[in-house]
Amino acid sequence: EPDVTIVSGLKDMVVFEGDDVTFRCQVSHENARDVEWKLQDVALQNNEMNEISVEKGKIHTLTLRKVTDQDIGTVTFRVGPHTSTA
Fold first, then answer.
1. Which residues touch 10 (CB under 8 Å, ≥6 apart)?
2. In this structure, are residues 67 and 20 in contact, taking their beta carbons and an 8 Å threshold?
3. Distance between CA atoms of 15 and 29, rounded to whole angstroms?
4. Whole-angstrom Cα distance, residue 17 to residue 28?
């Protein structure tokens, strides 16, 4: 299995309370396994507040819905040993 790397990392975002925000990270290979999103070091699951998806096989996205000041902090995307933060 090829080593999946991060081609295009996360970008810092500034949003207003109550808005949605989307983070994107592009990886080198489709169907990447061992992928994880975190907010403030807490692993995120796909649910009504966090939408986690993959576009075109290589672009991993995280949408945080209706953010509050509790959501301020570092977002981390990890694939294997590689990470990107914003």
1. 23, 24, 25, 75, 77, 84, 85, 86
2. yes
3. 30
4. 33
For 29, the token pair is: 């290979």
pLDDT per residue rounded down to tens, the chain (86 residues): 678 999 999 999 999 999 999 999 999 999 998 999 999 999 999 999 999 999 999 999 999 999 999 999 999 999 999 999 99
The DSSP string of 5-20 is -EEE--------TT--
DSSP, collapsed to helix, strand or coil, labels residue 29 as coil
Contact present, 86 and 70 (Cβ < 8 Å) = no
Q: Which domains does the chain have, with CATH numbers?
A: 6-85 (2.60.40.10)
